[in-house]
Amino acid sequence: MSFQTILTDLHEHILTLTINRPDKLNALNQTVIDDLSQAIDEIYNDPEIKAAIITGAGPKAFVAGADISEFLSLDSKGGKALAQKGQENVFDKIENAPKPIVAAVNGFALGGGCELAMACHFRLASENAKFGQPEVNLGLVPGYGGTQRLAQLIGKGKAMELTLSGNMIDANEAYRLGLINHISAPENLLTETRKILDVIIGKAPLALAAAISLINHAAYRKENGLQKEIEAFGKLFDTDDAKEGAKAFLEKRKANFMGK
Ligand code: COA
Predict the structure, then answer these.
(1) Are residues 99 and 214 in the same domain?
(2) What is d(CA 215, CA 116) in angstroms, rounded to the nearest whole number?
(3) Is the pLDDT of residue 2 over 90?
(4) Number of structural domains found in the chain
(5) Is residue 225 domain-shared with residue 177, that is, in the same domain?
(6) What is the largest CA-CA distance in the chain?
(7) pLDDT, tens digit (0-9, with 9 covering 90-100), for 94-127
(8) Atom 39 of ligand 1, nearest CA residue
(9) Catalytic site residues?
(10) Shared-domain flag, residues 81 and 182
(11) At 169, is the secondary structure helix, strand, or coil?
């Protein structure tokens, strides 16, 4: 796995994807979107990968947004295609991934950067992180899912204020609003993120996939969530891992899950 704009590091089943354009504050140009799309396919398909972390290179930015230098040549058709391609190939694919993907936000997470963090299953941030949806400053609205996911995560009123003002908030405010789950010192961010994922990847993979799918279903207020949960709960009883989980508990030992 090697990419022009992303560094990858697979260590003990956790893949770290580092967006690597620090001189442009890791802005998402089309190459980054294509690289991320391929890297996410690897997360889906490689059985060695049990979870992933997305972060940004350098001390300053997670991702400072879509690459504004690509905007000037766009008309309505091009703008729509940009949003559609990004949402389908990257943001929705992250959200719907059957394995946990977590954002380690190490600085500015603006526009597409905030949206990238929000597409992840949950977020940790360093003390210097800053979040915002500044698209209105450019005469635009968020195009990579920001209006939908921000409202889901922090509620309609706060999402309105942030998006309409274009203001940035710091890590403490993001934590208070529920946008991020944990704050850590910059030098500990990746270690803290790994620590949480180490616990998660010890659980049954098919159960994790089902839980992600069910919680996403709820977040979009789709119909029949409770029935979907009943079906998923029942289906998991046919897996080897559910048998192993119950047996291990009764035998007072750690379960050894195989993803089957
Ligand atoms: N697209 C393209 N280039 C970007 C960028 C983006 N979203 N964000 C930053 N950059 C580039 C800058 O143009 C600059 O490049 P240069 O050195 O070749 O001139 C470099 O990254 C460093 O950014 P700079 O603005 O000098 O850093 P700063 O510390 O003064 O300000 C920000 C940091 C994040 C406040 C500022 O870069 C910014 O407002 N970025 C745009 C954020 C945005 O609107 N994102 C939403 C896009 S839809």
Answers:
(1) no
(2) 18
(3) no
(4) 2
(5) no
(6) 64
(7) 999 999 999 999 999 999 999 999 999 999 999 9
(8) 64
(9) 115, 135
(10) yes
(11) strand
Write out the residue range of the structural domain in which residue 245 sits. 205-250
Mutational test site, ligand 1, from 21, 25, 71, 110, max ligand atoms within 8 Å of CB: 25
Q: What is the pTM of this model?
A: 0.98
User: Tens digit of pLDDT for each residue in 19-58?
Assistant: 999 999 999 999 999 999 999 999 999 999 999 999 999 9
Q: Do both 47 and 62 map to the same domain?
A: yes
User: How many degrees, rounded to 5, is the angle at CA 93 between CA 160 and CA 234?
Assistant: 100
Q: Which residues of 87-109 are buried (b: 16+ CB within 10 A; e: fewer)?
A: bebbbebbbebebbbbbbbbbbb
Contacts of 94 (CB under 8 A, 6+ apart): 40, 54, 101, 116, 119, 120
Ligand 1, atom 36: nearest CA belongs to which residue? 64
Distance 150 CA to ligand 1 centre (A): 22
Report the chain's mean pLDDT, rounded to a whole number: 98
Q: What is the structure's pLDDT at 1?
A: 80
